[in-house]
Amino acid sequence: MTTESNKVPVLGQRHLQILLLFLSITVNFIAKFNAGVSVVAMTNADTTNPDFPEYDWNEMEKSFILSSFFWGYFVTQFPGGYLCRRFGAKLTMFVSTLGSALFALLIPLTVDWGGWQIYCGIRVCQGLFQGLLFPCIHAHLAAWCPVQERNRLGALANTGIECGTVLAMFLGGIIAASSMGWPGISYVSCALGVAWCIVWLIFSANTPSESKFISAPELAYIESSKNAERNMTNDSGTKPARIPVPWKAIMASWPFWALLVARSSQSWGFSTLQAEIPSYMNGVLGMDMKSNAFFSALPYFVMWCMSYVYLILADVLLQRKLLSLNALRKTFNSLAFWVPAIGLIAVGFVNENQRTLAIALMTANVGINAGSTIGSALNTIDLSPNHAGILMGIVNTSANVIPILTPLLVGLIVKNEDDRTEWQIVFVISALVFGLGNLFFIVFGSTQLQPWDDENYLKSASNKPNETNEEDCPTSSVQLSKRY
Question: Spans of biased composition, class Polar residues (predicted)?
Fold first, then answer.
């Protein structure tokens, strides 16, 4: 084993899979967030290229367009986990990205006769396709990442979120002002998605053992790493194609609920940082952040940079054994939640003469929040590599309902956008959600592999006598936890 490990390539197929996941997230987030730029260009042609049609949509109609993506997005999160288990990440992610890309192409072809309503319908369909993505990404990470590299590779793949967000804002504005006009945003988005699909079909594989390009030493390295964490092979040495989902055990698991609460709290707080602070700055401070591409993209560029800072710091802390993985996740998640919680409250007390401070606070809050990826987003794989896609589907369903609900709460509280006191209530609520959500994660969260990850867990549970002790039942959950 030592000899084989020494021959493992420093850069191998596992890194190519991570690059493909990074690019997948990037191209899908470009398609997800470029509507913000498109809608501005489509309703105010003078700011971009006046040679293309302009539409007279009011603020409510534009809000429907921007929010409609999430109507479809949260619906398919949970089915995404099932489809990934049934058909594999390779096919499911291909369909997800291709469907989103092709629907993007329909926008300039149909909006002339369908108006904002057809635009909303297309965005809903894009959301339905993209909802399949993240459950597959987490399942793919679980299949391809050696245990000791899981944190690093998973975080690298997820930096596509920040990259895609920044590119959506910068590229969208450049394309809309070019000879392609606002239709070019859709054309480029479609082309990027289709190009990724072609590369994905050639080089991706659901598992290392299915890859045509992986070397024998790298395959042995990945499989032996996972098998050292848990005994999950059958007689032929391959993982069973389908493992029953232990729903009752998952729903009774405190670490799972801690993850669900943490990710939902993150969604609440981040949606406030992303959507409501710019509105506050516009109403109270008189700053139109959304019309300034630099100010709009700056927080996400800093977040992208900070994600690599967190990644390097995590590697150093783990390799030098200064923190355990459990302590690392909770420390990073605390930084990512509690610092922005304080920052949200601070923003509410900034006045018009402190606009630079307001921008600095907003940028710092979003940047520091990048630690939530290592802090809690990758925890699905810690708890259960076998059911990572299912867990991600459940967690992301809850998390993606939040961006639909938070604007409604803001609408109930903020009756006058110029009223600082009303906004302070919004920020205090978000800060409490950030703070209490992370506290719950600290108390009940865990990085320990859960007993219900075992492929034989349900069989063991069904065969267990009514009254047993540890010695009488060799497959009890107590002994399963000791095996891991």
Answer: 474-484
- Structure-derived torsion over alpha carbons of residues 105, 111, 117, 123, reported in degrees to the nearest 10: 20
Q: Which ranges of 204-253 does DSSP label H, i.e. alpha helix?
A: 216-229, 247-251
Half-sphere exposure of 82 (CA within 13 A, CB side): 7
Q: Going by C-beta distance under 8 Å and a sequence separation of 6 or more, which residues neighbour residue 294?
A: none
Taking the C-alpha atoms of residue 354 and residue 351, their distance in angstroms, rounded to an integer, is 6
The predicted pLDDT at position 291 comes to 54
Per-residue pLDDT of 96-111, as tens digits, reads 999 999 999 999 999 9
CA distances from 400 to 66, 79, 94 (A): 14, 14, 22
C-alpha separations of 210 from 137, 144, 206, 216 in Å: 17, 11, 7, 12
φ/ψ (deg, to 5) at 329 = -60, -45
- DSSP annotation of 48: S
| Cβ(97)–Cβ(200) below 8 Å | yes
Q: What amino acid occupies position 27?
A: V
Please write down the long-range contacts of 211-216, taking CB distance under 8 Å and 24 or more positions apart: 211/13, 213/13, 213/16, 214/12, 214/13, 215/7, 215/9, 215/12, 215/13, 216/4
End-to-end CA distance of the chain: 21
Q: What is the mean pLDDT of residues 405-428?
A: 82
Instruction: Give CA separation, 388 vs 18, 20, 243, 297, 394, in Å.
Output: 16, 19, 12, 31, 10
Q: Is 120 helix (H, G, I), strand (E, B) or coil?
A: helix
User: From CA 7, how far away is CA 18, in angstroms rounded?
Assistant: 20
What are the DSSP calls for 6-43, one per residue? Answer: HTS-SS-HHHHHHHHHHHHHHHHHHHHHTHHHHHHHHH
Task: Return the amino acid letter for 239.
Answer: K
Q: Distance between CA atoms of 153 and 212, rounded to whole angstroms?
A: 21
Residue 323 scores a pLDDT above 90: yes
Whether residue 67 contacts residue 404, with contact meaning beta carbons closer than 8 Å, is answered with yes
The DSSP secondary-structure symbol of 179 reads T
Q: Residue 45: its pLDDT value, please?
A: 72
